[in-house]
């Protein structure tokens, strides 16, 4: 998994500042799959890296493509490994050691099937209840981007749920939520991919379903989110690795930041700047022991770049 490499790269970082990263580290290639939580956290990463003098870039890619690109060294950083929901995506790369884990950057997340409260009250409490209401659901469940719904397909394929003739409707996070909004307005049945952190939890009255432990894990798909990098990146760019090792979030912070994207129409970096200015004290922990690419104090540089 490469943890030993990361440990060596970060050894002693609490006591010594890193020398400036080499020029080859200036361009930091990131990606996210079009999910608002990861768009926001990637925006945070981009904002901090720019303040430190790096030249980060990001692409919106499917999860499968992100992991292939990390393995092929076409990407450097991914802040959005949801575990256990993405275990099947990561497993092969983990076994080969071609993608390395830096740290868990979020706890308290969850990820499983959700329904509007009126659907729950009608009797849909568990995955095993879905087939009983097939006609009301139109034999459809709604997912996000193609390549990000493998678990939904696994649920349909499981004969114990009697869902073999159901369809997974794939579009995007925004497309799925637009369909949820339409169905809720008309009090129609819908089952969809739900998760927290996300403003959907306050925008709609939703309930999470039991019965998905085999696929999403216990406690309604209780999840962690981790930071992944391509093999060798931490050793090549230890100053960026130190930043990534510091970078952690919480559910409330991400909910607010995602609200800036969804409700206020901000771009990811615009939302990141606002969120940081709202809570500038977070910079102390994120930038502890981190320098600019040319070896100057990182905290001072980022504060200066943000006008703090």
Automatic annotation (TrEMBL):
GO cellular component: ATP-binding cassette (ABC) transporter complex; periplasmic space
Keywords: Signal
Residues in the signal sequence: 1-19
Source organism, top-level taxon: Bacteria
InterPro entries linked: ABC_choline_sub-bd, ABC_Gly_betaine_transp_sub-bd
A GO term, aspect molecular function: choline binding
CDD domains, alphabetized: PBP2_ChoX
Keyword Signal: yes
Keyword hit for Signal: yes
A GO BP entry: choline transport
Every ABC-type glycine betaine transport system substrate-binding domain range: 28-277
Classification via Gene3D superfamilies: Glycine betaine-binding periplasmic protein, domain 2, Periplasmic binding protein-like II
Stored NCBIfam families: ABC_choline_bnd
Protein name: Choline ABC transporter substrate-binding protein
Species: Rhizobium daejeonense
């Amino acid at each position: 998994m490469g943890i030993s490499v990361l440990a060596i790269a970060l050894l002693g970082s609490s006591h010594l500042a890193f020398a400036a990263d080499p020029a080859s580290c200036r361009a930091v290639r990131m990606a996210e799959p079009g999910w608002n939580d990861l768009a926001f956290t990637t925006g945070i990463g981009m904002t901090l890296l720019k303040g430190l003098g790096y030249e980060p870039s990001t692409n919106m890619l499917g999860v499968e493509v992100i992991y292939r690109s990390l393995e092929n060294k076409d990407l450097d950083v991914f802040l959005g490994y949801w575990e256990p929901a993405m275990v099947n995506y990561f497993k092969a790369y983990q076994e080969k050691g071609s993608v390395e884990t830096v740290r868990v950057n979020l706890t308290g997340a969850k990820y499983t099937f959700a329904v509007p409260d009126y659907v729950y009250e009608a009797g849909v409490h568990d995955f095993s209840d879905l087939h009983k209401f097939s006609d009301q659901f139109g034999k459809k469940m709604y997912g996000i981007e193609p390549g990000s719904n493998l678990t939904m397909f696994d649920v349909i394929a499981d004969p114990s749920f009697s869902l073999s003739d159901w369809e997974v409707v794939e579009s995007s996070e925004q497309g799925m939520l637009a369909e949820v909004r339409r169905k809720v307005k008309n009090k129609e049945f819908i089952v969809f991919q739900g998760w927290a952190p996300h403003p959907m939890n306050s925008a709609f009255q939703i309930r999470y379903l039991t019965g998905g432990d085999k696929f999403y894990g216990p406690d309604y798909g209780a999840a962690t989110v981790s930071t992944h990098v391509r093999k060798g990146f931490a050793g090549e760019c230890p100053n960026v690795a130190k930043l990534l090792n510091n970078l952690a979030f919480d559910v409330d912070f991400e909910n607010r930041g995602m609200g800036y994207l969804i409700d206020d129409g901000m771009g990811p970096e615009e939302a990141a700047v606002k969120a940081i200015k709202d809570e500038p004290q977070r910079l102390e922990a994120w930038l502890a022991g981190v320098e600019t690419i040319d070896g100057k104090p990182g905290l001072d540089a980022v504060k200066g770049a943000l006008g703090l």
